[in-house]
Amino acid sequence: MLGLNRKLQRLEDEGSYIKVGLVGAGQMGRGMISQIEGMKGMRVVITADLMVENVENAYKNAGIDAADIVNTTDVYKASEAVRNNQVIATSDIKLVTSLPEVDVVVDATGVPNIGAEIAWDTILNKKHIVMLNVEADVTVGPLLKKMADASGVVYTGSAGDEPGAIMELYDFADAIGFEIVALGKGKNNPLNLEANPATAEEEAKTKGSSPKMLASFQDGTKTMVEMNAVANATGFSPDQPGMHGFSGSVSDLPGLFIEKEKGGQLNGRKVVDFVNGVAPGVFAIIASDKEEVNAELKYLKMGDGPNYVLYRPYHLTSLETPLSIAKAYFDHEATIAPYYGLQGETVTVAKKDLNAGDYLDSIGGFTVYGKLLKANEANEMNALPLGLIDKNVRMKKAVKKGDIITYDAIEQTKESTIWKLRSMQDREF
Question: Where is the Oxidoreductase DRL-like catalytic domain (predicted)?
Fold first, then answer.
């Protein structure tokens, strides 16, 4: 079987290419456009963003001549532009998801409700969908995957995002018969449950990133969501609410993931977790009950056992997304998807004391953060999934800082797409 690079080369040699539609021209989207423009057999032919100038700048930064960038919301003009080997900048998301020429759509918005809408529309238009929106995936991914399967298209997370990078290690270890004890990632910064856009603003400026996005990493929400996606894909689960969050180096990893009865701290195996001190890498902790296999691993300097670590020291986020696009297009396979349904649930926790009448804001905001629980635990508590929060969710009663917010503590002032899909998913599964 040809590698993706050779398949892309062959496609280009045949005078064709994969036509990608993108929603979101922020940091992730911009990088992806430039990366793909340097590839063979693929091009981002249309990109939507509320600020169309962001799209135009992204294309120009990728080396595309301004004369070849067509600004339109008209489907006929857009189709003509693609036929003329031009690219389209638009403010119309539905033009991306419905344009006949588009083969694969990528959601790079990071907004759960918008991501759910994009995936829903894309699948209805029988196109493959790549999600750079893990928040939407952990909330309604099982339903979207079932829809995609029924429609004959691929629903997938992205290579390069940490869940996708972890899944590659999992697939490798699982394929050759190792027992997989744990799956995890490094955390980039110390956990600060009180982080918000104001406290993150100064650092965000130095990094050229969004304060809200940075706060969502600092308060642990992104880590919870990412490991939630891995749990749903593998059937693994958090060993305790919020995971352990051990500290250590790569060489420490095999010894960190030992069960309590063997002198360690784990309650069981097949867990997802994060470790301070190994960022930006991802890892799989593996083991074998075969004497010869253990002897070979020791010979290969993989450690003294009984656990060993497979470690990847990088993930290239949206720069690797083209691999998932190509895999969906050529092989009709996902990089990562919620094969096991809801194994985990990232629930909503009050970041401060909240009173009746208060509105929640958003992930990385001032009011809430996420905490990963086992799905059955969250369900028993009637806990509110984090991906459902937005400016239309209002508190019905007071909740103390650090407490989990439940469905009965909130009300919607306007129902969103992701709420409707989650209701359908809850009934379906």
Answer: 160-321
